[in-house]
DNA sequence: ATGTAC
């Protein structure tokens, strides 16, 4: 008999469709436990913001962006002026070399230059070399077409069923997870070079779309980061804070934490309501003074901060359930989503 | 989120 537990306070709104999806997943053959994170929202077939254990491996529970995650790199810059730096960001839609390495992708992916605005755990922040005013590069991206091909190869034969040869799937999966981390590092290096900035080793790099195996149990994470004694960057929105946390989630939470603020509106709703509520200019130049590089107007509305839950609520829920302890918060200076001038791009 | 079809 499987169980479902949602880690959100009663005042945190969770779309009922996402909770329904947790129960649908829990009813699958071999399922053990579904843990919903406070950023839980509906996904395609499976919930996003969930960690799910079972005795069999379900590739669709990880989804197509295998190895998607968030990395944080320390970066050194003399005078970070958002508009000037925004103009110097490289074209991260253009790959480095033959495949799509070094590219950010679309959707909620981004590369952000951010500044530590508050230290919340002084000893832990000091260990990471972070203090108020420290600059970091936050990279949220995944395995691009590679992970998509791996899931499609499985789905074409087995649909949403389990992997009959989990070892073979895991080999491809693990490669995509490594590729995702390399992709994030590659982008950080591209940006640092373009800005003439010094880049340090990653302080944090955790995938939130992956499956791990131990003692006969597959732990699938979809929009949920490893929370077993690791540091995790939990992303806010393009115009609000993000939080670096020390995660210490136990078995009830499937050793996992949230990965971001979580959508509160579908992309279609965000586009429709956003167009009535915001101008393109106010989404590009945010209330916190940051600049958003995004030549795709539709994406700008879909990803508007108002389409997401409040990150402080998500962090509050994690803290209240003792899944994580906040270390520092960051405020964006420049967020790169996609090239500033899509018309100038060659096809 | 993605590549691809419309």
Outline the fold blueprint.
Blueprint: E1 3-6, H1 16-26, E2 31-41, E3 48-54, H2 59-62, E4 69-76, H3 82-88, E5 110-119, H4 122-127, E6 135-141, H5 144-158, H6 166-195, E7 198-199, E8 204-207, E9 209-214, E10 217-222, E11 224-226, E12 228-234, E13 242-248, E14 256-258, H7 267-277, H8 280-284, E15 291-293, H9 297-302, H10 311-320, E16 324-336
Parallel strand pairs: 1-2, 15-16
Antiparallel strand pairs: 2-3, 3-10, 4-6, 4-7, 4-8, 5-6, 5-16, 9-10, 11-14, 12-13, 13-16
The chain binds one DNA strand of 6 nucleotides through residues 44, 63-65, 68, 105-109, 142, 144-145, 147-149, 151-152, 209.
What does this protein structure show overall?
It is built from 10 helices and 16 strands. By secondary structure, the protein is an alpha+beta fold. It has a single domain (3-345), classed as tRNA-splicing ligase RtcB (Alpha-Beta Complex), CATH 3.90.1860. The strands form 3 sheets. Strands 4, 5, 6, 7, 8, 12, 13, 15 and 16 form a 9-stranded mixed sheet that branches. It is globular, with a radius of gyration of 19 Å. The termini are far apart. The model has no long low-confidence stretch (mean pLDDT 95).
